[in-house]
């Protein structure tokens, strides 16, 4: 048996073929069991690999599962946008290319719509709670000055994946972060869950720079573009009263993958995350029998 896959860059920058967050999407993976899904995600070793396990292409709907190299995720932003691109392309083979796609995943049904050059998702409603740590404690884990952490600017936010969102004073503080893995596990995490910490700062009235650090055991990884964290940031801003605005997020410079994420918050507080999706390759693998 062979399986078809596609490689895409999500949240890419127009004109830069090595920008955005890489993604692998398996087109038809309904025959694979959980162990095989995890094994293929580990084989490709990207931040996430998605698997379309069932699809109604006439309705432009699909069931999707998302795996890192180590575990399954209930939701993630760049896999959602990249998978929507593939589902729409598969649907177009039998008729008109759809302008919207609905993906069902463990976190729920996620509507995704086409925008110029890419796709945009509507985030689920979020819950938020403050981090019970002082700015000095947070700064010590991040390896930056105490004054670089905005007082009251650290919150746990969950719009599908709970992450710690930490506002810093400026772009220099974001760039200077050198997190301590032990500190992430001990100070900036919850029991039984690997830490995911998103640091961000305003760089203008409607522009933000950010970084996402994820700890897995003793290893520390930095994501080039994190749609789930952008959704959480948008939800945090909406809950803080900042509505009716659009924000451009820059991420990935420190890992050599410059990325652009477009965040929108409407007057009702609904959050949208979008970006460019660029297909860079495709192929097949032998899945065995």
Automatic annotation (TrEMBL):
SUPFAM superfamilies with a match to the protein in the record: Diaminopimelate epimerase-like
A Pfam family recorded for this sequence: PhzC-PhzF
Superkingdom of source: Bacteria
InterPro entries per UniProt: Phenazine_PhzF-like
Annotated coiled-coil segments of the chain: none
PANTHER family per record: ANTISENSE-ENHANCING SEQUENCE 1, PHENAZINE BIOSYNTHESIS PROTEIN
Protein name (database record): PhzF family phenazine biosynthesis protein
Species of origin: Intrasporangium calvum
């Amino acid at each position: 048996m062979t399986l078809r896959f596609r490689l895409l860059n999500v949240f890419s920058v127009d004109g830069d073929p090595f920008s955005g967050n890489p993604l692998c999407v398996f087109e038809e993976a309904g025959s694979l069991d959980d162990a095989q899904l995890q094994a293929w995600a580990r084989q490709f070793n990207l931040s996430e690999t998605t698997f379309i396990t069932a699809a109604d292409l006439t309705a432009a709907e699909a069931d999707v599962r998302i795996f890192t190299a180590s575990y399954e995720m209930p939701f993630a932003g760049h896999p959602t946008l990249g998978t929507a691109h593939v589902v729409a392309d598969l649907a177009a083979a039998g008729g008109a290319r759809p302008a919207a796609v609905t993906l069902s995943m463990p976190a729920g049904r996620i509507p995704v719509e086409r925008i110029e050059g890419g796709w945009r998702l509507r985030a689920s409603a979020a819950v938020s709670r403050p981090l019970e740590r002082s700015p000095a404690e947070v700064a010590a884990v991040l390896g930056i000055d105490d004054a670089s952490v905005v007082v009251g600017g650290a919150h746990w936010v969950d719009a599908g994946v709970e992450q710690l969102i930490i506002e810093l004073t400026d772009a220099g503080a974001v760039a200077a972060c050198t997190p301590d893995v032990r500190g992430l596990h001990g100070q900036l995490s919850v029991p039984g869950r690997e830490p995911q910490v998103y640091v961000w700062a305003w760089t203008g009235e409607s522009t933000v720079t950010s970084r996402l650090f994820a700890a897995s055991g003793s290893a520390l990884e930095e994501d080039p573009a994190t749609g789930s964290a952008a959704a959480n940031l948008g939800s945090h801003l909406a809950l803080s009263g900042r509505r009716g605005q659009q924000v451009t997020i820059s991420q990935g410079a420190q890992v050599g993958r410059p990325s652009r994420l477009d965040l929108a918050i409407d007057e009702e507080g609904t959050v949208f995350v979008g970006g460019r999706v660029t297909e860079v390759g495709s192929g097949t693998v032998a899945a065995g029998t």
